[in-house]
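Blinded run. Sample ID left blank on purpose so nobody reads anything into the name before looking at the predicted structure. Input follows.
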Amino acid sequence: MTTDSVSTGDDPRRLLSDVRSLAGRVRRDQRLTWVALLVLAAATFLAIPFDWLFMKLQCDDSGCMFARRGMLYYWPPALLLAYAAIAVSYVRAARARGLGARVLPYAITGAVTAVLFTAAYTTAAAYFPSNPPFEGGPLPFWWILLDRLIAPWGLIGLALLVLAALERNVALLLFTAGYLVLVLFVLRTTDGMDLPFDLLPSFLSGTNTHIRLSMAVPQLIIGAVLLAGGIGFAKAHRRKR
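Blinded prediction complete.
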């Protein structure tokens, strides 16, 4: 980032305008949105084999029950490490420019989401198998939305909203809004997607494989969206510099 010396004379309004313009340039130069999105994309892709390998499936004539234990093993430490890496990147970039970094609220939000997910998932795993909610009837839509919101991918969206506010980044706000619509309303992230299993090759046949695939596909889509967003923001950042 470079700074230009501008003579403002005795006009306080022009001086104030120049200060605001400089502050805006500093905020834009501090943005490492692309780093956050790429780190979160990598964390999402790495989650897929954990979910696949550690998923507990039990099927009988009445249907299948599954427990996604890999999520509990993987996501709490993964979220903590991801937000720590993002925070370190912001701090290092700010220090290289001789500036301060306002990333601490974002890192704290990320840590809180990791704790929230762990508590919610552990409670659900211990309580709901013997006390199923809304037994005998369909799940209400608000319950489905809540379930998706406290899943790791929903919590990532909430933390991105905090980052957008800290950076005053309208582009990130719009991206996050679209991301949350995808996670909450489009993809079936917590109960699996309906896929054309009859079109799959023979080596992917079998109920267990089908269930794992139905869980993996939404994660692949989410990871791809975060990756595409990271690449897009990285290109925009380079152009502005």
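Unblinding after everyone has recorded impressions. The helical segments are 12-30, 33-54, 69-96, 104-127, 141-149, 152-167, 170-186, 207-240.
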